[in-house]
Amino acid sequence: MKRARRARIVATLEAGASDAFAAALFDAGADVFRLRDGDGVAAWAASVAQVRRVESARGHPLGVMIEPADASPQVLADAAALGVDWIVLCGAGALTRARAVVGDAAWLMARVDRPMADDTLDEVVANADGVLVGPADPAWQHRVASACRKVGQPVAVAVTQADLATAIYDGVDAVLLDAAGVDDLAHADHAIARIEASPGYRRGLDASHTPAQGNTVDALCCSMRRVAALIAPAALITYTDSGSTSRRAARERPVAPILSLTPRLATARRLSLVWGVHPVLVDRLHDVGEMVKWANRTAVIEGYAGAGADVVIVAGLPFGEPGATNLLHVSRIGGTPARASAG
């Protein structure tokens, strides 16, 4: 389902909820489902299966997040085995220990509820795949969001309806709505879209944008952002295996939406939390021509582009190699030759 907003919504799914209620939460705006920490492995397994049924029925990848009260190693191994996408933990030490158990089976999210020294915060951000800010004062929330955006780490913030706008203006990737019903999610969905459509939102994103890092992927994603600002493409398209290229593209907070093509279902599910990213599962591709055809076709099918529209594609050659992002290509839907190509 194509969302009208860039920031994503994490909704809490209570154990024992019906499939119809879970589907209604998705329809109202949920991109990621958070499971309660005290429900236990059996309840988690039932909830994960429920989300996957909704995912199949709606034809769109959905993320699942858990925050286990007990982090030691068996609980983490059980959680990873269930196929959850994000595991929330507190502290750099817990992240390091969890990484040894979980490996690449899930992305790890650090929870930071209280202010800490800059070097400690930087260490936590560097060791995590994303950061969750618990209920906090706006200054701390802004500081964490800025630290994460600078290095391209997804950041989610736990909010109420009252402080939703503050988080969105900070440019966070996602907001977590605790104990929210269908109407609450629908209200948040509309409120976020309305905020993002305001001139002040874009001015704030541009003013808080930080320079790209000195590496190939950031150089291409920075160029992608500038190209998009000049030619106003219908979509920016990343072809990614691990999700890294899509995350670096999202760091730029471009005006155009990011359509993320990936052959890995786990990657598509994890990217459902990342700002502006619409993940789509595709076949594993083998050459640039095939990728461009898939990119154009998917942009049309997903409702992002029509005949004559431009899309900007970022990918890495050879395909499937982490850190190989080295291609920037502009394509016009409908078979007209690309206006520019570099790589």
Give a brief rundown of this model:
The chain is α/β, with parallel strands linked by helices. The chain contains 13 helices and 14 strands.
Written account of the structure:
This protein has 343 residues and is of the alpha/beta class. It folds into two domains: 8-205, TIM Barrel; 216-342, Pyruvate Kinase, Chain: A, domain 1 (3-Layer(aba) Sandwich). It is built from 13 helices and 14 strands. It has helices at 19-28, 40-58, 74-81, 92-102, 118-127, 138-151, 164-169, 182-196, 199-207, 216-231, 244-251, 265-270, 288-301, and strands at residues 8-13, 32-35, 63-66, 86-89, 107-112, 130-133, 155-159, 174-177, 235-239, 258-262, 277-281, 310-316, 325-332, 340-342. The chain has an eight-stranded parallel β-barrel, surrounded by six helices. The protein is globular. The model is unreliable at 336-343 (pLDDT under 50).
Which structural traits does this protein have?
6-stranded mixed sheet; 20% strand; 2 domains; Pyruvate Kinase, Chain: A, domain 1; disordered C terminus; globular; 343 residues; TIM Barrel; alpha/beta; 8-stranded parallel beta barrel
The proportion of residues forming helix, as a percent range, comes to 40-55%
Radius of gyration: 19 Å
Strand order, largest beta sheet: 1-2-3-4-5-6-7-8
Q: How would you sum up the major sheet?
A: 8 strands, parallel, barrel
Number of helices: 13
